[in-house]
Write a structure and sequence with these properties.
With 225 residues, this protein is α/β, with parallel strands linked by helices. It folds into 2 domains: 152 residues, Alpha/beta knot (3-Layer(aba) Sandwich); 57 residues, tRNA(m1g37)methyltransferase, domain 2 (Trp Operon Repressor, Chain A, Orthogonal Bundle), CATH 1.10.1270. It contains 9 helices and 9 strands. The strands form 3 sheets. Strands 2-1-6-5-7 form a 5-stranded parallel beta sheet. Strands 3-4 form a two-stranded antiparallel ribbon. A two-stranded antiparallel sheet has the order 8-9. Helix 3 runs parallel beside helix 5. The longest helix is centred in the last third of the chain and has 19 residues. The radius of gyration is 22 Å and the shape is elongated.
Length: 225
């Protein structure tokens, strides 16, 4: 999978997406993440990509043409049109089900908004999907894009050591994850559940399933609905 990110602050992504699991996956070739400086597609000497909104109002809007030119340049270099996502508080809230679907796409481009948003015309003409990471507003789309890219990349084969690393996690199958324990078997007088040390795989799986339902009912009953 290749992810292209259109942003005003490409330097924000390097310390996050070039480290740990995602960084190693890039080095191995399992994924490729490329950031594009939107100002490189501006027209004036000040490299401005924003302007005042028609009709008045606070703040500035990102202009349509630099975004369009940047996206068209990405398409030309790839030789194909990537699925174009705009990180927006107006988008559908991201969930694991949608991530599983998007992980099947080879090329995804992410637009990071800033200021008061983006000219509606570029959204209407170019954007395939608006994605939100929650019902709140941040200062820009860079942090949401990092969240989206991280969550998406770990679903790609070869990024994690084994598919069970994510298939057993919260939300993958509609439930929250079961409780987990590590050594020592007794910590401050609290024992690890006996079934987990029994070596009986069927009983362990049954216990984990029951606990997943129990945890989900307690913490997120809306998921059971």
């Amino acid at each position: 999978m290749r992810i292209d990110i259109i942003t005003l602050f490409p330097e924000m992504f390097e310390p996050v997406l070039n480290e740990s699991i995602i960084g190693r996956a890039q080095k191995s070739g399992a994924i490729e993440i490329v950031c594009h400086q939107l100002r490189d597609f501006a027209f004036d000497k000040h490299r401005r990509v924003d302007d005042t909104p028609y009709g008045g109002g606070m703040g500035m809007l990102m202009k349509a043409e630099p975004i369009a030119l940047c996206f068209e340049d990405i398409c030309a270099k790839l030789g194909t049109r990537p699925h174009f996502v705009y990180m927006s508080p107006q988008g559908k809230t991201l969930n694991q089900k949608r991530l599983k679907e998007l992980a099947e796409i080879d090329n995804i481009c992410i637009l990071c908004g800033h200021y008061e948003g983006v000219d509606q015309r570029v959204l209407d003409e170019f954007i395939d999907e608006e994605v939100s990471i929650g019902d709140y507003v941040l200062t820009g789309g860079e942090i949401p894009a990092m969240v989206f890219a991280d969550a998406l990349c770990r679903m790609v084969p070869g990024v994690l050591t084994n598919n069970e690393c994510f298939t057993e996690e919260s939300h993958f199958n509609g439930l929250l994850e079961y409780p987990q324990y590590t050594k020592p078997a007794v910590w401050r007088g609290i024992e690890v559940p006996e079934v987990l040390m029994s070596g009986h795989h069927a009983n362990v799986e049954k216990w984990r399933r029951e606990k997943s339902i129990e945890v989900t009912r307690k913490k997120r009953p809306d998921l059971l609905e």
